[in-house]
Amino acid sequence: MSPADRPAPQRSSKRSPRHEPKPRRRTRERILETSLQLFNVFGEPNVTTQLIADELEISPGNLYYHFRSKDDIIESLFADFERQIEATLAAPESRVPDVEDIWLFLHLVFEGIWNYRFLYRDLNELLSRNRLLETHFQRIVAHKVKTAKLICEGLVGTGDMDATPAQLHSLANNMALVATYWLSFEFIREPRKAIDSDALARGAFHVMSLAAPFLQGRSRALFERLARGYLDA
């Protein structure tokens, strides 16, 4: 067969992955993503379902097809947050951490708080009107206290911390308290200034600093080295 008689090669109908169109995000996912952004920027009480629909350029009826109310949106966002924060809080249970591990762990906790910061900034308002959030947040706070106590007991066991059981009990509660209400403190301190991620780094430092007086030897020196960048915070 001559080259002229050969059939022309068929162009493949498959597109290169480079040119494959991105799948369109589902409306439900877009509603949650946009709601989270608006809640975080403006505060949940200041965001209406109409504002969310306008931001998405969809009708309120389309929004209500996916979520019956703003509280439904909040509960869906909270469920995502709860899964993330519970996984983070469970991480130190696998082994006894050192001070550097705790430093990283606190930053991960505060990163999760930052991603869903509207929950913490408007915490009392949300809990006062939503029973589901009230009961589930109680569990999260209890888990924070348990994890803080577990970490400190581990440091006592390795000789890196010197504290009595009563001191550990108070310390764990105080660490959970500061972590939970740090954003409120930052907001009260400068209400007209936008809260940025640096505020969360300061929060991690101040939670860690609660344990500093009880640290011993190498762990105390390591904390002081890690903390140098936050001493003026």
TrEMBL record:
Cited SUPFAM superfamilies: Homeodomain-like
Highest taxon of source: Bacteria
Ribonucleoprotein listed as a keyword: no
Keyword set, alphabetical order: DNA-binding
Keyword DNA-binding: yes
Biased composition (Basic residues): 12-27
DNA-binding region: 48-67
Segments forming domain HTH tetR-type: 25-85
Region (Disordered): 1-27
Pfam families: TetR (PF13972), TetR_N (PF00440)
Gene3D superfamilies per the UniProt record, alphabetical: Tetracycline Repressor, domain 2
Protein name: TetR family transcriptional regulator
Organism placement in taxonomy: Bacteria, Pseudomonadati, Pseudomonadota, Betaproteobacteria, Burkholderiales
